[in-house]
Design goal:
mainly alpha
Length: 129
């Protein structure tokens, strides 16, 4: 595994403590509602990633960029800083692609792969709680 992915997965593990903390924090006050909001957001990220992979990175619509930004902001609000950071990075990379011939496809694919792992980790943690 590359050092880039190893570093990102390490950051994800640290970020998972944030997920557990937030879920436990909300247990006493509207836990089910907040847990449902988190689940919806995670499902939305998963659908976004599926859509990007199915349509190909070569097609970047305005709606896709808006959705990436919306989900990045949502991650930030939930305290999922690493998720927000990766989504903002993905948004910038996709914007750059629209205005440049100098596009790093490998970097986008790495970000998509790490985000996919991130979503899986969050879903696993949520099932256990």
């Amino acid at each position: 595994m590359s050092s880039y992915l190893t570093e990102k997965i390490g950051n994800i593990a640290i970020n998972m403590y944030t997920v557990v903390y937030l879920i436990q924090l909300h247990k006493g006050c509207d836990f089910m509602e907040n847990n449902q909001d988190l689940k919806i957001m995670v499902d939305d990220i998963e659908m976004l990633l599926d859509g990007i992979l199915l349509s190909g990175v070569s097609v970047t619509l305005d709606g896709t960029l808006r959705e990436v930004n919306r989900l990045a902001v949502s991650c930030d609000k939930f305290g999922l800083k690493e998720g927000a950071s990766m989504l903002f990075k993905l948004e910038e990379a996709l914007k750059m692609k629209r205005h440049s011939l100098n596009f790093d496809l490998d970097e986008v694919v790495k970000t998509l792969a790490v985000l996919g792992s991130y979503v899986s980790l969050i879903k696993d943690k949520m099932k256990k709680l």
